[in-house]
Target: Putative GTP-binding protein 6
Amino acid sequence: MQQGNSIIEESEIDQLFQQQIPTGVGEEYQRVFIVHPDVKWGSKKQTLTTAELQMDEAVGLVTTLQNWTVVDKIILSTKTPGKKRLFGKGNFQTLTERIKRMSHVTAVFVNVERLSALSERELEDAWGVKVLDRYTVVLHIFRCNASTKEAKLQISLAEIPLLRSRLRNDLANLDQQGGGSRYIMGSGETMMEVQQRMLRERELKIRSALEKLCRKRHLLRSRRQQRQFPTVSIVGYTNCGKTTLIKALTGDAGLEPRDQLFATLDVTVHAGQLPCHMTVLYVDTIGFLSQLPHQLIDSFSATLEDVSHSDLIVHVRDVSHPETVNQKTNVLKVLRSLQIPERLLNSILEVHNKIDLIHGYQPSESQGVPVSALTGQGLADLKHRIEAAIVESTGKLILTLEVHLNTSQLSWLYKNATVQEVSVEAAEGVASVRVIMSAAAYGRYRKLFQVTA
Ligand SMILES: Nc1nc2c(ncn2[C@@H]2O[C@H](COP(=O)(O)OP(=O)(O)OP(=O)(O)O)[C@@H](O)[C@H]2O)c(=O)[nH]1
Ligand SMILES: [Mg+2]
Model:
């Protein structure tokens, strides 16, 4: 990756972030009509349900935004993907007439991953309102929720492809009027070349700033590893309750769960204690979403790097959600695409959250741990399951050792291992100590105190 010597200051990041919003999404587009194009709509019952669920997800996205409302929605059959036009002629005409009749609608959200700049313009010309796709809507939600340097940079990076296609489109327009390929006085560059160069420079600058933050995170990670705290990554679909669960497990009052999609956009780490008194670090991650635009995943995948360096992955599922099974499939698919070590993928601990919303909940798959992060139900059991999994994955040993109280054995153990329980036999001058420690630490202990196994 290009390092460059471009140093980016905090104020510059804010400036970059606040510059022209390429999605063009603003407060004025709050009344939305959603169109979900579906290739096989109406052909099979199964497909029908999928399309309806995807529509529900689109509604969820729009209503996540403050003051935005869905005025109306429609699922329309469409031509096969790859065809130049999204809708057949008849459908398009009906749709256009319907939109024109709804004078209070300010934007149409076409629920596809990306519309080309050209079709976006064609649709806007035909309908006379702003046209949004999934990329622009999700990006706008991210924009509204971004608070840290890293999230802002990642969003600015995710906006570059939009700026680029918009530029190509504007220049194609200009060219029709004979302006785009003209040289700018004395520079030897055309306007198109100048603007493309500026975009390239902007992209490099953002990438190198992100790279710097990434190095800082590596450093923090290696410090954590040096201190030997095991890490547990909490992953799951957006809004499944990851942040709430971490708050409940750690008592970290600073965490703010919200009933909102993509409330968490940064990876944060929170310390908690397991029943054996071992300290673990819980990593809160960005939520997943089916059909999250690819380029967005790319921009945010660096934040998910911590997941592959953890000792355990906990997959939180909102079992009260009608789509919980599909959500699980999606999360596992994304995890597999992140190049996470096989042993971590094979040892995922699944948590069934929000059981307070289902009367008498029984997990259908036996490996799920039922909990309610909100009421605290099942959390004690979950902590034990996490503990067992951590001991297994870190290769730690649980031992009961007999120590002599007139030596420094006990204080050594307090420093170098997790002491769970001490029972002193004062008369004998010994204590029986239950500890969790690494095999390496046990080796050192035996050598130092000349203990035979
Ligand atoms: N009833 C109930 N609600 C819950 C439970 N856990 C979380 N919630 C609610 O679900 C909503 C989302 O919770 P968060 O913890 O922000 O979810 P998240 O997975 O971190 O969401 P993102 O960061 O947006 O991906 C909040 O309104 C929580 O109060 C639970 O066990 N029961
Ligand atoms: Mg969260």
